Amino acid sequence: MNIDIKLNNVEKIAEQIRKDSIWMSTRAGTGHLGPALSIADIMAVLYGRIMKYNPKDPSWPDRDRFILSKGHGCLALYSVLAQCGYFDRALLGEFCSKLDTMLPGHPERKLPGVEANTGSLGHGIAIGIGMAMAGRLANKDYRVFVITGDGELQEGSNWEAAMAAAHHKLDNLVVIVDRNKLQLGDFTENISQLEPLAKKWDSFGWAVKVIDGHNIKEITDVLSSIPLTRGKPSAIIASTIKSKGLKFAENKVEWHYKVLTEQQYKEIKDELSLEELAYE
Amino acid sequence: MSKIQTKSTRVAFAEALSEVGRSNSKVVTIAADSQSRYGEFVREFPERSFNVGIAEQTMIGVASGFALSGYIPVVTSYANFLAFRAIEQIRVDVATESLNVKMVGTDTGFSSQWLGFTHLALEDMGAISSLPNIAIIDPADAVETFEATKAIFDYDGPVYMRIRGRKAEPILPIKDRKFEIGKAQILKPGKDVLIIACGSSVYDSLQAAEILKDKNIDAMVVNMATIRPIDEKALSDLIPSFTKVITVECHNIRGGLGSTIAEFISERGINTQLLRMGVKERFGMAGSDEMLKQAFSLDGQGIAQRAEKFLNEKCGR
Question: pLDDT band at residue A6, thresholds of 50, 70 and 90?
Fold first, then answer.
């Protein structure tokens, strides 16, 4: 069950994810801002409308599982977990600013609501398969949602896992590809071509749907019709814009791992209704 | 000595696994292609047996997903493919969280024989021991493999157990066998030199002790089946009584038993000289088990000869 009824306004959740991500990364002077902003709308729909979970009981056995395989997008995850009430919002101020923080630059399970340690790319799908198989074995109807980066799909481990998931007909497993078309060094297609990406998933035995990853209705519709095909895992390729919502950073490669200066923050603070940076 | 009984450690592992599977419904097996290593378990519990194909990284990831869901997964593969191909998944998914995953590397030491250096697992413990949190066990024979297999499922946390191949191996001619994770066992008392061995080298060390006896050298032989956590109490009790200590393992002398004992002796400042017998600064090569042990002087004869020479050396200080 989705406990926190305040989350009904998905647009608001997405907006708050963006504001929190900008706030946390600017305060810390570090963080992968662009990769968090591109998944904000997807995360908002997942936690606002789709997944069942209980922040008061993070290990509730029947909960849906979420794995952020692209762990560097964790600013978005931290924000949404705080909004759900997994922990006090004040903790967001500890992002990358305290030794052994609960909110490091890649998510760890010590933070309530984080299901798997990620940060090294190409791990999430296989862990998700294990969770999906375990759910089936235990006769539970929970689903497992995994968000991968698009550049991340250059890691071969994803494709061996993709083969296994289809072979085992895991229709309780959903992979959402954050297709923002950029990776650390350049556009994906300039480094190691991913297209035709939908065909790749299809040929690996997955049910595939390409959507606009910033259109709340499209995201909601597709995630409300899981499994897309009975007996197949679902791959949703969400076309997104890296750094979405931060106009001057949108679709720019350098914003993979770049944060705002205090000056830049002040300049956009009112326009985006951002909080005071308020360093203690 | 009465006729030596033999049995394969892989067979013993599979037999114990079925027994464990009957009493614990949380145990699941994940295979990367070969399910034969799990023996009857797969036929007896098909719903708890999964195969992800030739994909060791996926095997570890899937096992982690099961462990995070309250199951006790066991994974097996040729030790090299488990310990090296999937090392990063073992590090990030399993070790950091101390997940309850049981990892069994097979065909270790020289037991993959003619398959050559790709398969001869002589560095697997080194890879695994570089990571925190994982217990490492190298059982001496099929009897110990059976007991160790049961014990690792009673142990809460990640374990790497290295066993050997299908070939029937000698069972130690020792009556009182005990196995407890983290406990060494003195198999033969002695006063002139301490031989600490693990895995199949335990049997060969006992053979060596017999040969040394004929030369009036009285060797103590200790089975150190658990490399981590090492039995510090046994080492503290035993090592100071000897001026010469030898470790024997079918593994590189780095990263396994020899390294562990060297660290212990030097950090405790114990006044003793150590000889690490194993494979040094090279990979394996194709050959039969017997040929390879002979080539690396790790058969009974080779161990005895090197031990004798070592005992006659003056300590270099």
Answer: very low
- Asked if residues A61 and A26 have their Cβ atoms less than 8 Å apart, the reply is no
Verify that B136 and B54 share a domain, yes or no: yes
Query: Which stretches of chain B score pLDDT less than 70?
Result: 1-2, 316-317
Best mutation target, B33, B48, B69, to test chain A (most A CBs within 10 A)? B69
CB nearest A126 (choices: B58, B67, B96): B58
Q: If you search the block for the tokens 């014990």, which residue do you land on?
A: B151
Q: Which residues of B touch A126 (CB under 8 A)?
A: 52, 57-58, 60-62, 64-65, 89
Domain, as residue range, for B39 = 6-170
Q: Which of B52, B59, B87 to mutate to test the interface with A (most CBs of A within 10 A)?
A: B52
CATH of the structural domain A5-269, one choice from 3.40.50.720, 3.30.470.20, 3.40.640.10, 3.40.50.970: 3.40.50.970
Q: How far is A277 from chain B (nearest CA, A)?
A: 33
Chain B contact for A117 (CB, 8 A cutoff): yes
CATH of residue B141: 3.40.50.970
Has residue A248 got a pLDDT over 90? yes
Same domain, B165 and B215: no
Q: What letter would DSSP give residue A111?
A: S
Question: For residues B222-254, b (16+ Cβ closer than 10 Å) or e, as one string?
Answer: bbbbbbbebbeebbeebbeebebbbbbbbbbbb
Residue in A119, A127, A135 closest to B61 by CB: A127
What CATH number does residue B273 fall under? 3.40.50.920
Chain A residues with CB-CB distance to B69 below 8 A? 130-131, 134-135, 138
* pLDDT of the residue at A216: 96
Q: At a CB cut-off of 8 Å and minimum separation 6, what does A93 contact?
A: A24, A27, A280
Calculated CA dihedral for residues B273, B277, B283, B286, nearest 10 degrees? 170
Q: Measured between beta carbons, which residues in chain B are less than 8 angstroms from residue A157? A: 57-58, 61, 89
The answer to whether residue B315 is domain-embedded is no
What pLDDT is recorded for position A1? 47
Q: Does A116 touch chain B (CB under 8 A)?
A: yes
Structure tokens at B216: 């009036």
Q: How many domains does chain B have?
A: 2
Helix axes of A10-28 and A216-223: crossing angle, nearest 10 degrees: 110
* Contact residues on chain B for A117, CB-CB shorter than 8 A: 92-93, 96-97
Residues B155 and B240 both lie in one domain? no
Q: What is the pLDDT of residues B201-212, one digit of tens each?
A: 999 999 999 999
Q: Quick: pLDDT tens for B248-268.
A: 999 999 999 999 999 999 999
Instruction: From chain B, pick out residues whose CB is under 8 angstroms from the CB of A158.
Output: none
Same-domain status, B205 and B278: yes
**A166 at interface of B, judged by CB pairs closer than 8 A:** no
Which pLDDT score, from 0 to 100, does residue B194 have?
98
Flag whether pLDDT at A5 surpasses 90: no
Domain boundary among B170, B202, B227: B170
**Are A130 and B55 within 8 A, CB to CB?**
no
DSSP 8-state assignment for residue B94: I
Cis peptide leading into B158, omega within 30 of 0? no
